[in-house]
Amino acid sequence: MPVTFSIPATRRICAATVDNISMGGVLLLTDEQLDNGTEIVIHLPIDLDATINVHATIVRTAEVGEFGVAFIKLHDDQMDRISTFVEARAGRS
């Protein structure tokens, strides 16, 4: 799923692809150079007309361009919306 994310420290907005998503985070594919511990905000399109901004941090780097990202600072309403989104995507598999 194509997404954008921003890096608050540099105010950059970048393109990426979410390869998988869970309640704890995502696997993010991007050509950007990101270090472990980098905080980002993922602009997650959870519906045709709705995007939520999820604060996250890079927790794992694997192959070039592949990053494990953990959600941080999730509010209850964001958790509910992500849960519904994850369940809907799992039902399509």
How does this structure look, described?
By secondary structure, this protein is of the alpha+beta class. It has a single domain, classed as Thrombin, subunit H (Beta Barrel). Helix content is 18%, strand content 52%. It has 1 helix and 6 strands. The chain has a 6-stranded antiparallel beta barrel with strand order 1-2-3-6-5-4. Strand 4 and strand 5 form a beta hairpin. It is globular, with a radius of gyration of 12 Å. The model has no long low-confidence stretch (mean pLDDT 88).
CATH superfamily: predicted glycosyltransferase like domains
Give me the secondary-structure category.
alpha+beta
Radius of gyration: 12 Å
DSSP helix fraction: 10-25%
Distance between the termini: 14 Å
Please summarize the sheet with the most strands.
Answer: 6 strands, antiparallel, barrel
CATH class: Mainly Beta
**Average pLDDT score:** 88
Question: What is the number of helices?
Answer: 1
Q: Assign an overall shape.
A: globular
- The strand count comes to 6
SSE inventory with pairings:
Layout: E1 2-7, E2 12-21, E3 25-29, E4 39-47, E5 50-61, E6 66-71, H1 76-92
Antiparallel strand pairs: 1-2, 1-4, 2-3, 3-6, 4-5, 5-6
